[in-house]
Amino acid sequence: MGCQDQLLVSKVCEIYYEISKLETLKPSEHVDMLFTQLVLTCMSPSSIDVAKLCKRVQEIRSKLIRLCGQAEGLLEAHFSTILGSFENPIDHLNIFPYYSNYLKLSHLEFNILMRHCAKVPTRVAFLGSGPLPLTSIVLASYHLTATTFHNYDIDPSANSMASRLVSSDPDLSGRMRFHTTDVMNVTSALKDYEVVFLAALVGMDKEAKVRVIDHLAKHMAPGAILMLRSAHGARAFLYPVVDPCDLRGFEVLSVFHPVDEVVNSVVIARKYPMPVNSSVLVDHQGLGPMILPAKCSDQIQCFNPCFNPLHQINMIEELAVEEQLS
């Protein structure tokens, strides 16, 4: 690990100790300052592989991800409550400090999705939607304007706040559903969705995340699309990492690592249309066997697509299993 990366890790650990001493993670000037400092530190260009960090730093990272998750939930609940006090909450979403990031991330996810979907999906599930389901709202408002969204969250108060945000909008209230349940209890209903989004904080560690992915592989419809959020480099101090090799039962199509202010990486995968056996797979176009690469990713390509002239996205695309078929 280079000198710059060592300095970054030391800074992250220093901020962690400050955050861990807080009496509450509810939004306040001091709490906001610490988490802003943490995010800006982790957004620095870095070649850090968090899997190779020492045990002490690994433990700090695990605790930090949980603290970030708690703080994010409290921040969203705080602003969802404020927005819910407006007559038309959807008209005021820009008061949320990270709203522009959601606009960019949702636009990125839509473009990625449509590269791999033959048609616009009619039914989408979002697992872990929370009290401020901005991804669903932005996608439904600007990109998937005829699609029905089924939002799942384990917290009834989160769903209550979220449903209040869209209740006054005649279009969104007709296309947004909210279900209060543990993701692991959603079984046969998963077969109804052409696309399933999995929130970054559903499964706060590797083991929990893999359990959720295995559950989705068991119950999603064959050929359905799974979109997950992950993290790359130092951003993995903020969110769990999903490696392509964690997606058993899915064909990984692409992994995108933004390098601008959008924090989350995006992984898109397709559930295999039939059970798979060993590492020899039949590709979805019926062109013959496709051998999975021995490592989780086999090619990295840098590019700078301009999906929207107003919101240029800088990112790295990591092509996980798109090998040339001989």
TrEMBL record:
Gene3D superfamilies: Vaccinia Virus protein VP39. It catalyses: 3 S-adenosyl-L-methionine = nicotianamine + 3 S-methyl-5'-thioadenosine + 3 H(+). One of its GO terms (biological process) is nicotianamine biosynthetic process. Pfam families: NAS. It is an enzyme of class 2 (transferase). Keywords: S-adenosyl-L-methionine, Transferase. Its EC number is 2.5.1.43. The keyword S-adenosyl-L-methionine applies. The keyword S-adenosyl-L-methionine applies. GO terms for molecular function: nicotianamine synthase activity. It comes from the Eukaryota. PANTHER family: NICOTIANAMINE SYNTHASE 3 (PTHR32266:SF12). Synthesizes nicotianamine, a polyamine which serves as a sensor for the physiological iron status within the plant, and/or might be involved in the transport of iron. Belongs to the nicotianamine synthase (NAS)-like family. This is Nicotianamine synthase.
